[in-house]
Amino acid sequence: MSELSVKHLLGIKYITKEDIELIFQTADNFKEVINRPIKKVPSLRDITIANLFFENSTRTKLSFELAEKRLSADVINFSAAASSVKKGETLIDTVNNILSMKVDMVVMRHPNPGAGVFLSKHIDASIVNAGDGAHEHPTQALLDSYSIRERLGDVGGKNVVIVGDILHSRVALSNIYALKLQGANVKVCGPKTLMPKYIESLGVEVELDLRKALEWCDVANMLRVQNERMDISYFPSTREYTQQYGVDKALLNSLDKEIVIMHPGPINRGVEITSDVADSDQAIILNQVENGVAVRMAVLYLLASKIKQ
User: Fold this and answer.
1) Are residues 166 and 116 in the same domain?
2) Given this model, what pLDDT does residue 124 score?
3) What is the tens place of the pLDDT at every residue in 125-151?
4) What is the sign of the dihedral through the CA atoms of 89, 90, 91 and 93?
5) Where does the chain have alpha helices with state H?
6) DSSP state of 21
7) In the chain, pLDDT over 90 holds for what percent of residues?
8) Do 55 and 21 belong to one domain?
9) What pLDDT score was predicted for residue 55?
10) What is the CATH number of the domain that holds 295?
11) How many domains does the chain contain in total?
C-alpha cells in the first residue's frame, strides 16, 4: 500500500493498521533526512499549509511548523487567541477567509471535540487534527507508537499502561485506539475520579494500583494532570496524587525489570514523574520529541500526495 486510506487525519479511529504502517515507513525515511547536515527536502514545495491554533500550544505547533518547513511547504500561522475569533467570527468564516488564500492543508487545534470533522465536511482542504478538546490527538499517538517501535522493535504484543488523568486526555484516547489497532495490550491507571465511564468499552483494563500496573507493563506513558480542564477537584491535593500515582527512581529500581517511561509533555516535574526519572536512560521523552517531527512530516507528505492527484 503506497497511499493512505483517508484524505484527512481527523483521529486514529478513522484510519487502519496499514495506514499506521505506511506512516511509520515514511517517517523512517524522514528521520534519516532530519539527521543530515541539510535537513530540507523539496517534497511539498507547491503546497500551502495553514496552522490554525484556537487553543494555546507550544510543542505541537513548533513540531508541525518544523515538519512543514523541512518539507519546503509554504506556511501560514494563525493564532486564534489574537484574532477575529475573539470578535465573534465563526470557525467556518475564519477558515473560508484562509481558504480564499488558496490553502491546500489545514492543521488545526480546537477546544471543541469534533471541530476537525465538522470542518472536513465544509471545505476542500486536507485537515490534520492537532488536538480537539479532550477528544483526539492523532499525531501524538502516532509518534508515541513510533517511539515504542523504535525502542522495543514492535508495538504488537507489548504491555502498555497509560497513567494519570485519562478523563481529560485526548492523548490517552488516541493512544488507546492506536495501540489496540497494532495489537498491544493496554491498561489505564489513575484515580477512579479521573477514569471516563466508558473506558472499559474500548477494550482496556482499569488498574487503580500503580505498582501492579508497573509490574505488568513494558511501557508506562505518564500523563500530566490537566488542571486547566478541571472545573472541580478530582483528588484531594497534588501531594496526595504524587504519593499514589507519581513515579520516582526508587519505585522504578524496585521493579524486577526495566520498563520504558514516556511522557507527551509538558512535564510537571515532581508530580507525575520526578526529574531523575525524566532524565534517566529509561525515559524516551526526548526521542518522542524528535520522532514527532519525522512522524508529522510523514503525515503531511502522505496527505499532500493525495491532494496532488
Assistant:
1) no
2) 87
3) 999 999 998 899 999 999 999 999 999
4) negative
5) 17-34, 59-70, 91-99, 115-120, 138-152, 170-181, 210-216, 238-245, 249-253, 275-278, 285-307
6) H
7) 77
8) yes
9) 86
10) 3.40.50.1370
11) 2
